[in-house]
Amino acid sequence: MICFAGIDVGSTAIKVAVVDEDGCIAGVHVTASGSLFHRNSTEALNTLLARLHLQRSDVRYMIATGYGRKLFKDADDSVSEITANAIGAFESGRALGGVRTIINIGGQDSKAIHIDDNGNVVNFVMNDKCAAGTGRFLDVAARNLELDLEELGDYHFKGDTPPLNINSTCTVFAESEIIGLLANGHGKPEIIAGIHYSIASRTVRLAKRIGIENRVYFDGGPALNRGLVAALQDELGRELVIPEHPQTTTAFGAAILARGEFLAEQGLGKQ
Ligand code: ADP
Fold first, then answer.
1. pTM over 0.85
2. Which residues fall within 8 angstroms of residue 133, CB to CB, at 6 or more apart?
């Protein structure tokens, strides 16, 4: 079988997507990045290929993207995560009614991308200076609250009182603030909802810098957290488009681009 791979070597997680010759998704895989980006990326790719009963030689073209893309040596090419995210969201968003604004929250950054009707990037804005509006904030909060990351989403809806205000503008100070709130007898749900609203309001402020056009697509690992999704929808005042695999949109976009490059090299055009 002929297939194409996209590998998103993120700060926190490595995501692999494989598409078939028609550009339809064959499978995705997510694993922790760790510190050995090349080795862990290779393992992630091999794991997915084995699950799909594919050989490495079936992969006709592979594109790497993401924070650590230069550290993965086996790809045929690499592209920025902005480009790959835009294409992935455009392709997945098509079936969901089309999108013009993409909000991505990753492990250590957050961004908003504005795309045109063909999936081209018109404008983007990125926060990679401060962890407070990123997945890192959620990871730290889960640890302080002695919960699994996956539990934060459900806790958001369990509170009897309104979400607390988390005032700290820095993850390190927020950590002390969370511990202080727990020590003062506040419940985990109110704290967690407060954290989600804090991330959501930062994200909306960031996205407003490029203007928010209708049909907003939300992706990245934190889009798996339904509490954060609810807070972001509330702050935006509109419903978000969430794909089936929000964490692997960028890897999917890289796989779509890999297929396009292969077809172009074969003189077949980007069908
Ligand atoms: P990056 O590309 O920077 O590595 P990702 O888009 O992979 O970032 O997102 C990583 C973040 O996603 C983690 O820091 C974590 O907060 C969040 N995350 C990952 N899996 C889940 C999950 N199952 N539920 C909620 N949040 C998650």
1. yes
2. 105, 110, 127, 198, 199, 202, 203, 206
